[in-house]
Write a structure and sequence with these properties.
Blueprint lengths: L8 H11 L48 E4 L15 H6 L1 H7 L3 E4 L3 E3 L8 E7 L6 H13 L3 E6 L9 H6 L13 E2 L14 E4 L2 E4 L14 H16 L4 E4 L17 H14 L6 E4 L5 H8 L1 E2 L5 H8 L3 H13 L5 E3 L11 H4 L4 H13 L3 E5 L51 H5 L5 H14 L1 H5 L1 E8 L2 E8 L2 E8 L5 E5 L7 E6 L6 E2 L6 E5 L3 E7 L1
Parallel strand pairs: 1-2, 1-13, 2-5, 5-9, 9-10, 10-11, 12-13
Antiparallel strand pairs: 3-4, 6-8, 7-8, 14-15, 15-16, 16-21, 17-20, 18-19, 18-21
Helix pairs in contact: 6-7, 7-8, 9-10, 9-12, 12-14
Bound molecules: calcium ion (2 copies).
The site of one calcium ion (CA) has 5 residues, from loops.
């Protein structure tokens, strides 16, 4: 979702004044474009159909069970000194991602945008944001990522476009325009609507269009089959280039049936199943959907959706909250196996940067990381999370979460650019950065590498079922099983030593330490039980033979 979605116009103006976003002033050609006279100077619309031509997929089978990183290209790495992150910068850091053990990356929108910031106001669905590079550079990114065994999924904004998108410019030209019914228009302002505190109906030349998130992001009419067919053509455009899948934005908001029926409507799931069907004609493509209020339902429709309903549990469990320990232990008993997990993301409604949520407590931070990296699902690390990046000290709102990556401790550039960063840096760039973390075997980054390494080394951790979880005070134990392969995970979130009574193991089996390295093993008794002692705020992982 866009950072503007939950803000009033006044709040947006305040944010713009505070952050000097390019999106806010003139960067996209302005947000006050005049309605063109019908038939005069309307921009050409490229809605050509695209036939499926799968270039194939050489990623390892089950690649989508590995660990992903969510990347904001604008803030990841600048290659040319203009202070703005770009595709060449990302390509140059692929070795860093490979060495971390990353299996896939999700790029926030790289398509051309009106906002020139987050990218969710898409002005061209079939081209690359000029500040990021070109289609040829995107092709190069795909080649280079695939050569390192890393899949690439891209954000796809299916619910709305930019107001400057040529299709909407045509649509608003008049009721007789052939693209009028690609968006939602009313001659009389509908009453009774309130979405996230806003009236979603926006005036234009005496008529009203539906745009709940921002007046510059009009919603598509997704009940018009021409619109969904065009979206499928766009999906094929990227799939044919070798993109490994998509993250769909705002899927709870696709179709509206009235002022009291605008979220998670039945037609949303149909739209998504149809898109998934189009993707299924390609090999091994992954789709993860953003539907915060129905993660399980959207996992069913899309194949995966983000577990917004579990982030709080993980973070509070890591702080030692007993109720949260229980909820975190129970979550995967009912969650669909395809679900995607995370601690936080680029939107403030999903929480501040993990470092800030833990108040800099790295012990708790590691327990949270271990929890979601060793539990089922596809974990998504938010770029910089692995080094403990804090939010921007002088920023607020979503911009605070989207600061340039702290590659070094350089207080002026963070090693992000040779020029001047387009946005101010993370508050802890001097102490939590890649250079300092790589040099320290006990750093957060080293811990993330170790947990991701366990997931890569033990297929039961990557894709096994979740079994026999048990909570003992502030400690939890659970098993992961894939066929006859088993792993045991024990995490003590508390400040006191604990004994975790595991059951349901093969009688007489041996637990061999996988983490920490060199830890002692344990013997399972004849009833399949074993007590696992675990020190305060530590993690133990075993294989079972
Ligand atoms: Ca650049
Ligand atoms: Ca909609």
């Amino acid at each position: 979702m866009s950072h503007l979605k939950f803000l009033t116009r006044t709040a947006i103006a305040t944010l713009c004044a505070a952050t000097a976003l390019a999106a806010c002033g003139g960067g996209g050609g302005g947000s006050t474009a005049q309605t063109p006279a019908p038939g005069v100077n309307l921009p050409a619309v490229d809605v050509g159909s695209v036939a499926a031509a799968d270039p194939g997929n050489a990623l390892p089978l089950g690649w989508q069970n590995g660990v992903f990183m969510e990347i904001f290209v604008r803030s990841f790495k600048d290659s040319d000194g203009d202070g703005i992150g770009d595709l060449r910068g990302l390509i140059a850091q692929l070795d860093y991602l490979r060495d971390l053990g990353i299996s896939g990356i999700w790029l926030m929108p790289v398509t051309r945008s009106q906002d020139h910031d987050h990218g969710y106001a898409v002005s061209d669905y079939r081209n690359i944001e000029a500040q990021y590079g070109s289609l040829a550079e995107m092709d190069e990114l795909l080649r280079q990522a695939h050569a390192r065994g890393i899949g690439v999924i891209v954000d796809y904004v299916i619910n709305h476009s930019a107001a400057e998108n040529p299709i909407f410019v045509n649509s608003k030209a008049g009721a007789s325009n052939p693209y009028r019914d690609w968006y939602l228009w009313q001659g009389l302002k509908p009453s009774g609507w309130n979405i996230y505190g806003n009236d979603p109906w926006r005036g234009s030349a005496g008529n009203y269009y539906f745009a709940p998130f921002w007046d510059q992001m009009p919603d598509f009419n997704l009940l018009n089959p021409k619109v969904t067919a065009w979206h499928h053509d766009n999906l094929r455009f990227w799939l044919n280039r070798g993109v490994d899948g998509f993250r769909f934005d705002a899927v709870g908001n696709l179709v509206e049936n009235g002022p009291g029926a605008w979220e998670n409507q039945p037609q949303n799931y149909t739209v998504l199943r149809d898109a998934r069907q189009t993707m299924n004609t390609y090999a091994q493509r992954f789709l993860v959907c953003e539907g915060p209020s129905d993660p399980f339902g959207y996992t069913s429709a899309c194949g995966s959706a983000f577990a917004f309903n579990n982030t709080r549990n993980i973070i509070d469990a890591a702080k030692g909250d007993a109720g949260a320990v229980q909820r975190s232990a129970d979550f995967h008993k009912t969650a669909p196996g395809g679900i995607s997990t995370m601690l936080s993301n680029h939107d403030s409604f999903a929480g501040q940067r993990a470092y800030d949520q833990f108040g800099g407590n790295i012990t708790q931070y590691k327990l949270a990381a271990a929890t979601y990296l060793l539990q089922p699902g596809t974990p998504f690390i938010y770029y910089g999370e692995e080094i403990g990046m804090a939010g921007g000290g002088s920023l607020s709102g979503d911009a605070k979460l989207r600061t340039p990556m702290s590659w070094s401790g350089n207080a002026g550039t963070a090693g992000f650019t040779s020029g001047t960063p387009y946005r101010s840096l993370s508050a802890n760039v001097g102490t939590f950065n890649v250079v300092s973390q790589q040099a320290d075997p006990n750093s957060l980054l080293s811990f993330y590498k170790a947990m991701i390494g366990l997931r890569r080394a033990l297929p039961a951790i990557a894709s096994g079922v979740y079994e026999s979880s048990v909570v003992a005070g502030s400690a939890v134990g659970f098993q992961r099983r894939l066929g006859s392969e088993r792993a045991v995970v024990v995490i003590n979130y508390g400040l006191l030593a604990a004994n975790v009574p595991l059951a349901g193991l093969p009688a007489g089996a041996t637990l061999t330490a996988a983490w920490p390295a060199g830890d002692t093993g344990l013997a399972v008794d004849a009833s399949g039980a074993v007590n696992v002692p675990v020190n305060p705020q530590t993690v133990r992982v075993y294989t079972v033979r």
